[in-house]
Amino acid sequence: MGIIKDRFVAKASAANAEIKELLKEHGNKKIGEVTLAQVYQGMRGITGLVTETSLLDSHEGIRFRGYSIPELQEKLPKSAHGTEPLPEGLFYLMLVGELPTKEDVDHVSAVLQRRSHVPNHVFAAIDALPLHTHPMTMFVTGVMALQTESYFSKAYSEGIAKKDYWEPTFDDALILIARLPRIAAYIYRRKYKNNEHIQPNGMLDWAGNLAHMLGYDDHGFRELMRLYMTIHADHEGGNVSAHTTHLVGSALSDPYLAYAAGMNGLAGPLHGLANQEVIKWIFEMQKELGTDEPSKDQIAEYVRKTLSAGKVVPGYGHAVLRKTDPRFTAQMEFGKTHMPDDKLVNTVWNIYETVPPILQSLGKIKNPWPNVDAHSGALLVHYGMVEYEFYTVLFAVSRSLGVLASLIWDRALGFPLERPKSVTTESVKQWLEGKAEIWGD
Ligand code: HAX
Predict the structure, then answer these.
(1) Residue 416: how many CB atoms within 10 A of its CB?
(2) Do 85 and 199 have their domain in common?
(3) Which residue segment(s) compose the domain that 155 sits in?
(4) pLDDT tens-place string over residues 161-217
(5) How many angstroms is it from 312 CA to the middle of ligand 1?
(6) Which residue in 404, 379, 396 sits closest to 84, CA to CA?
(7) The ligand 1 atom nearest the CA atom of 266
(8) Which of 270, 276, 282, 324 to mutate to test the pocket of ligand 1 (most atoms within 8 A of CB)?
(9) Is 27 contained in some domain?
(10) Backbone phi, psi, residue 299, to 5°
(11) Structurally, how many domains does the chain consist of?
């Protein structure tokens, strides 16, 4: 894998030594307190994981190795005629911890390109599923079929030493990332385009090639894919897809098994599937109102109707963020540059002006602002990709960059099996009555 592997090894061994020292000196320091409410309510705000690739600030949004999305848009290398960052550059940054040069990014693109061949049995496994199967189910099935190729699983069965775990993990991760665009495009073309497939173009970058194999050779769509694959890649470690990948990986399940598990989490409507739910919700609103240009008053009424039916407004709210998601803003900027007059995109912007005060008025929602999923679908529809059930697959392809870079770090840092303590309500009651010490100190 050349320079990227050498640079990673150098960084990882320095980090290993640093963490050892840090724990020796400060290992007993308390990092926070846990309330009973946090235990019952999704562990919000409990610090309990190390994820080196990115850090989320509730007001500023995500930073990848210290860089915000606008900074990455400025600093990461671009394709020859593009203005959006190449996601390979973000992967390099997350893995190595330094901004790559254009040469470094070209190296990663070439490494991925050379490893992108998908064995036929993967397509056969996808083909075995009925056409009405959800694309995320097809996607995870494809990833699981690809697990036959795992170097980690083979090396483990042959008795690899713990200190070497990182290397086959590294190889698996890069090979898996290399092959995902082909798998995703295969699913799209099989399900929606008459099974007419498009061969990869060896001259294109990772995201450009994905756009090409999906059947969208428009320059704008390629640029959108580069932006999309960059901004969806990582959101620190506690979100469902990242945490699941890490958790399953902690059992030394190989990268295919761990990533597939994480993507099953991404396929939930409160997480990545929200991107399809947003467009479905807008299409239903358009149909009910009989217009593709609903006014803000009409939108407000539809939002209230959604809420009074006991449903969530998809694309709004977040477990950590407390402001408009900068990933939403980046897509809004893209829309303003590439399609300022698009009716659907304008509807998304009108929803943005309408929804937050309504959600705020309910008094219980901690974040009334839009998240990443509120915008992405409208941009895809603009280029003709109306098949919204497919959208989460695109999210999954992007998310591979973050969760697999993290998994490589997990192995390099020798992180152990994850196993937090759980309690029963009965034991909580006994603890409250002073009869038991469930957290035993
Ligand atoms: N519409 C209606 N009600 C909402 C809401 C929304 N968009 N967001 C939160 N709420 C409700 C919650 O359901 C909860 O209600 P109850 O107390 O009656 O159960 C209450 O407000 C408090 O929730 P919260 O503490 O503000 O939010 P959570 O941390 O529990 O949940 C979610 C965060 C993202 C799951 C939530 O905001 C939501 O369901 N949003 C809509 C779905 C969505 O857009 N998901 C994508 C999130 C981003 C992501 O992961 N992308 O992949």
Answers:
(1) 7
(2) yes
(3) 54-269+390-410
(4) 999 999 999 999 999 999 999 999 999 999 999 999 999 999 999 999 999 999 999
(5) 7
(6) 379
(7) 52
(8) 270
(9) no
(10) -60, -45
(11) 2
Residue identified by tokens 């973000």 is 90
Same domain, 261 and 401: yes
pTM: 0.98
The enclosing domain of 167 has a CATH number of: 1.10.580.10
Pairing of strands 61-64, 54-57: antiparallel
* Domain membership flag for residue 48: no
Residue 44 Cα: closest atom of ligand 1: 29
Most informative mutation of 311, 312, 328 for ligand 1 (most atoms within 8 A of CB): 312
Over the Cα atoms of the chain, what is R_g? 22
- CA-proximal residue: ligand 1, atom 37 (nearest): 317
Residue 103 lies in a domain: yes
Query: Ligand 1 centre from 58 Cα, in Å?
Result: 15
Model confidence at 258, in pLDDT bands (50, 70, 90)? very high
Does an H or E element contain 222, and which? helix 219-231
Clarify whether residues 157 and 236 are in a common domain. yes
Return the active site residues: 271, 318, 373
The Cα–Cα gap between 49 and 304 comes to: 38
244 lies in the same domain as 99: yes
Q: Distance, CA 61 to ligand 1 centroid (Å)?
A: 17
Distance 213 CA to ligand 1 centre (A): 35
Q: Is residue 282 part of a domain?
A: yes
For atom 32 of ligand 1, the residue with the nearest CA is 318
Residues 242, 322 share a domain? no
Looking at residue 440, what is its pLDDT?
A: 53
Cα of 272 to ligand 1 centre, how many Å? Answer: 13
Provide residues with CB under 6 Å of ligand 1: 239, 270-272, 274, 307, 312-319, 364-367, 371-373
Q: Determine the Cα angle at 239 with ends 234 and 245, to 5°.
A: 75
